[in-house]
Amino acid sequence: MENLNKATAPPELNLYNSIPEHLADIPVEKLDSILPGPSLIYIEGNVSPPIFISILLHGNEITGFLAIQQLIKELNLTSRPAPRGIILFIGNIAAAKKGMRRLENEPDYNRIWSGGLLPEHRLAGTVLEKLSEEPLYAAIDIHNNTGKNPHYACINRTDPSYIHLARRFSKTIVYFTEPHEVISMAFSHLCPSVTLECGFSGDVRGLNHVCNYLLQSLTMPAGELFSPPSNKLSEIYHTIAKISVPDNAQLGFGNCRRNVDMCFRNDLEELNFTTVPTGTKLGVTRAKNCTLQITDNDNRDVTGNYIITENNALITRKPLIPSMFTKNRTIIHQDCLGYIMEPYPMDKQTGQR
Ligand SMILES: [Zn+2]
């Protein structure tokens, strides 16, 4: 029997002044046996101010958690101070237990950081209140994609220090302002802040990549982290619209069963970070009034700018660069099908070239 009380109890913030016992070895799905819920863990370092690192805001994205475990072991952090102080936030432990992005009856933990009335909003508010009292060196939020994407870093401001912090992870950078309720946006008001998208959850290349990045961030002399890396060339994209599907639409990919409402091309994820030409068929709609819904950053319906429906086929009206296209139906309904980006103009890229 499932313990419903536990699943629905309002999340309380748990505070730790050192690394909880067994954190480095526990499988992610058993994390709740040592941490009762969302936790803020202060890890002593030789240098301050500390770096804020957040992981498991989405319970099914475990690369950040694995990277922290590796870091604790590699740097022997249970018995030695870190090269620089770390404040670690571990988010949705209950969802991680079930391998889900979020539980059905709760908000997305990466959409609770700009106020609201739910207990999860209060939790986020408590974290921000605590951390706005002290100086922070940088904030790093670690995620995975369910669809095929390159590793990339996201920023919510285009100040040089933010761009350089992102550039140290990847030459592909995504600048976005919506959704604005994400943790990286909240921290972007406190210090240089970045979101790392590390490919598929648990993939070893993403894990090694983020481990190296964290190690570099913790050991680099002050200031160097925020100056241009030797190769200054970046591709910065700006997210301009979100692509959703109707709430109850049955979705399929490739050779779809007859009863699906929308059937997308099987290679949809291959389109991420490519320029999709005008006239490209993304899929077909089979139900009346069932089509893609595209909204811009001001939440205006801009579907008609990008897509036309011709004989039930969903066809692009202009060249577009998608990101985060996914074939994971749960994620599509909980979040979205993907985003549309455009290259961010070089003359706006302060600190670039
Ligand atoms: Zn995520």
TrEMBL record:
Keywords assigned: Hydrolase, Metal-binding, Zinc
Keyword Transmembrane: no
Matching InterPro entries: AstE_AspA_cat
One function term, GO molecular function aspect: hydrolase activity, acting on ester bonds
Keyword RNA-binding (UniProt): no
CDD domains per the UniProt record, alphabetical: M14_ASTE_ASPA-like (cd06256)
Cofactor(s) needed for function: Zn(2+)
Domain Succinylglutamate desuccinylase/Aspartoacylase catalytic: 57-187
Name of the protein in question: Succinylglutamate desuccinylase/Aspartoacylase catalytic domain-containing protein
Organism: Chlorobium phaeobacteroides (strain BS1)
